[in-house]
Amino acid sequence: MYEKKDGKLESKTCSICKREREASSYIRSKSRFFSDGRLPICKHCLGVMGELEDFNWNFVDEYCRWVDIPFIPEKFEEIKETNLRDDILEIYTNLFFNEEYEKVDWSSYNDAYIELKKEGGLKEVIPLMKEEERRKLQEKWGFNYTDEELRYLETLYDGLLMTQNISGALQGDQAIKICKISCELDRRIREGEDFDKMLSSYDKLVKVAEFTPKNVKNANDFETISELVRWLEKRGFKNQYYDDVTRDVVDETIKNIQNWTQRLYTNESNIGDEITQRIQSLQNIAQMENYFDVGEKDVDFDEYENEGFESLFNNEDFIVELEDKEN
Length: 327
What we know:
single chain; 3-stranded antiparallel β-sheet; two-stranded antiparallel ribbon; 15 helices; 61% helix
């Protein structure tokens, strides 16, 4: 609901809180979707929404797209640090009603940032990101290096990781020390200081770590024939020219072994009988094991005892011997 006086907007109802507020309570917008030049949500409600999102960049970027103004993170962060929460969005928005940004909209700046992100330049443009990156590098390399030296150390270390076969914590530590010595060497050379001892230490450490050109790794290279064969076999390679023709001493040896094995079994007349006897022996052993395996059967040992006594008393020799002793 709008109320106008002399053709000018005096007040309207907020689409969130449903309260009627004066025109100054609504932030101006460049978007052509708002014919009155003001947002449909009042500044207070926008401030509450921003608080809930902690004014994170995703929220602010959405807001800028809605209002059709550029999202410039470093500008927004400056305003965020020095102004009250309810005023942040309005102050930031008013920046883009100046003549400097008259023809700049959200999409033009967004496209530029996407291109910058692809090129890896956001960390240099956005102070907050740059500060975070600096903190991480200082924790890794130390706090006594300049930004330029930190970038040099990180670039050299990444280069070692990509080109050398670094494995284990020891080689990783050696790589870090080599980078630090290299950085110190550059500094001494620039300042005209003596660097002979430092250079000697650098050479020794490089040799100990075996970071030499001959050890440069290449993901596309094969160090052994077995690696090449394995790579080919994984891709379904099959030797197409092989035609069962003996071409060298290895082929000849393989063929001799195959022929000897074939003659050994085909020309041996008793081989069939030996195999049959072996199978029968294995069957007999299995039957005996099953017979004497009483682990899972219930055995009545009293029955075995009674059978023993009965067989003893039915033995005639035992009866005659017993009668003789009684007489």
